Amino acid sequence: MTNALRIVRRSAGLAICLVVLVGCARSKPTEQAVPDSHERMLEVLRQTRVDASIQDPFLGTEQLNVKRQSLRVTNSLPPADQFELLLSVGELELQQGDSEAAIERLLEAAELAKQLTPEDVQHTALRLAVAYLRLGETKNCVQCRTGESCILPIRGGGIHQERAGSEKAIEYCKRVLQVKPDDATARWLLNIACMTLGTYPQDVPERFRIAPEKFADDTDFPHFENVALASGLDAMSLLGGAVADDFDNDGLIDVLVSGWHTKDQLRFFGNRGDGTFDDYTEIAGLLGITGGGNLIQADYDNDGDLDVLVLRGGWRSAGGRFPNSLLQNDGEGRFRDVTFDVGLGDEHFPTQTAAWDDFDLDGDLDLYVGNERFPAQLFVNDGNGRFTNQASQARVDNARWAKGVVWGDFDGDRYPDLYVSNYRDENRLYRNNTDGTFSDVAQQLGMEEPLPSFPTWFWDFNNDGALDLYVSSYQFDVAHVSAEYFDQPVDADHDRLYQGDGKGGFRDVSAEAELRRVTQPMGANFGDLDNDGFLDFYLGTGYPEYEALMPNLMYHNLGGERFADVTMAGGFGHLQKGHGVAFADFDNDGDQDVFVELGGAYPGDAFGNALFQNPGFGKHWIRIKLIGQTSNRCAIGARIRLALDDAGTPRSIFRWVNSGGSFGANPLTQQFGLGDATTIDELEVFWPKTGKAQMFRDVSVDQFIEIREDSARYRTRSLKQFAFQSSSE
């Protein structure tokens, strides 16, 4: 940003200054495209909001309004039809956020159910338990939330003060269990409801009780406090994306957050450098840019600043044919929508996943968009910032329900390959043939599972210099969570960790890495929490229904051999539905914090986002920003290798420049934990486009450096360290 505008942003100065400065900024020549592209998108989004508010299957009110009209003649219907109608209206009202009206409908349905079947009685009782529990959440966790709200195990500030909702939920769970003692959902929710009142475990009948040790802090992993409330990042939202990166090149990590509701404003939170973030959405030129199930950043035009892609329409099938948005950054943290000018707005398909890389090694970034039940799009960059879809020619149409896409050179030939995680269909691994085409080798290499699946990423979890692949299953049911806590078998496909050999082969190491679990994640990403040089990961779990109260999960990498679940010990077990996840050093203290965008699919399932502050582990680190010259400017796809002596043990650490997992975006600047190493013996950067490597020796630790492609020297950048305020203060 300009110095003047930074002053306004950092000091929250006089409003008149803001008007003057923004006005001056607007008069400056920028890299903006033809002015009508932005206005055209605003108009398209305005119309989308109007249509979706009525017709959207998740967000619209049309179905509810029609069924409410039908209630006026309910007395003329047979009892079974009356029951179904009341049950349906109650569910729709709950989805729209009117818990009290929903409970009234469900109570009426419960009376009718007595005239019908025992199954109807049980089903209605369970729906009432869910509705009452959501009422309790709304009155306690949403309207009066603290940093401890809804984090498992619930205690302290997370205990409900308004007790009526959970008390009724407990009553109805017990009714269900009296008749169906093996009902997994009722057993799980009974334990959660008692926990919200501080009466777990004593008030849970022993045969339905989850053993307290399941929630115990059984490792010495430290607690990460949720400081979102105090920092200003606790914005309420439905499911959406998150990008953490430095959008104005001031050395501070900002946050962009989206919500999938067509009315949800894309929001830009600027890092003030004092432990707080301010909402600079209007200053950033983003007003009217709404909706978006996911976000991903890249410097698509090689001008030295980060642009952002907004993805829309996911889960809605043909009803989600909304345009995506490409937001061009002018270098000062202001954006314009250039979608229609650059060739990305010709056809609209439902999507929630995309990935950037230079697949043809021509020095500019290309874009793969994984669509849902429509052919995918491979947008080839012409070097002048315009794109052409060549998916069909490249043989990467997929034409399945894509939920996660990632690039990575798994066979070591410099050319990025492509993995597509599909929901309800076999996954794809497209090997880059280096001639502009790809071949699907997933079946050949045993990489088609799990089925169904969702988030995915390439990484090097064991630091052997070869890319590995993680892909989660997504066969959702809260019963799968309940089964694990009650030590019962889980009838669903499990997550996969495929270890790469660097030559194009993989083997499934899920079991030996202790990741053979059913986790049901949506958002996900990875980073190094304890600065030991090995990558940990966080899963934002859930599915649309309200009973999907399950903890988000954190896994700690134990030396590249296996993973330990540190969810409870670290305080990461948020019960609200987790979506965009980002690991980043928001306070510049040398360790990575974790941001997660929270909230569900339905209008009544919004929640405040979370920011888990890293307490520190006393280890060394380095932050490295690569700047491409011949290669793409933001260096996506470049490999960094560090060789060091860690307390007498020589070892290497590898990273590939990207934004991490397929749902949530880490900074493209790479941060390494170095353990106890006091110097970096070798720092090597490999640039795939040229096949050349840069080598730097005896690099100091605990610093931020920039490396320009082909430069013999690196530049040291200063960092302003600061502290977050506790949300309990």
Topology, please?
Elements: H1 3-11, H2 15-27, H3 36-55, H4 62-71, H5 79-95, H6 99-113, H7 118-142, E1 151-152, H8 164-179, H9 184-196, E2 225-226, H10 228-231, E3 236-237, E4 242-245, E5 254-257, E6 267-271, E7 277-279, E8 294-298, E9 307-311, E10 325-329, E11 335-337, H11 339-342, E12 351-357, E13 366-371, E14 377-381, E15 387-389, H12 391-394, E16 402-408, E17 417-422, E18 428-432, E19 438-440, H13 442-445, E20 453-459, E21 468-473, H14 478-485, E22 496-500, E23 506-508, E24 521-527, E25 536-541, E26 553-558, E27 562-565, H15 567-570, E28 573-574, E29 578-584, E30 593-598, E31 607-608, E32 610-613, E33 620-627, E34 639-646, E35 649-656, E36 670-675, E37 679-687, E38 692-700, E39 704-708, E40 714-717
Parallel strand pairs: 33-39
Antiparallel strand pairs: 1-28, 2-32, 3-31, 4-5, 5-6, 6-7, 8-9, 9-10, 10-11, 12-13, 13-14, 14-15, 16-17, 17-18, 18-19, 20-21, 21-22, 22-23, 24-25, 25-26, 26-27, 29-30, 30-32, 33-36, 34-35, 34-37, 37-38, 39-40
Helix pairs in contact: 4-5, 5-6, 6-7, 7-8, 7-9, 8-9, 9-14
User: What's the CATH topology name of one domain?
Assistant: Methylamine Dehydrogenase, Chain H
Task: Specify the structural class.
Answer: alpha+beta
Work out the number of β strands: 40
Q: What separation lies between the terminal Cα atoms? A: 32 Å
Round the mean pLDDT to the nearest integer and report it: 94
Supply the CATH class of one domain.
Answer: Mainly Beta
Low-confidence stretches: 1-30
Radius of gyration from the alpha-carbon trace, in angstroms:
25 Å
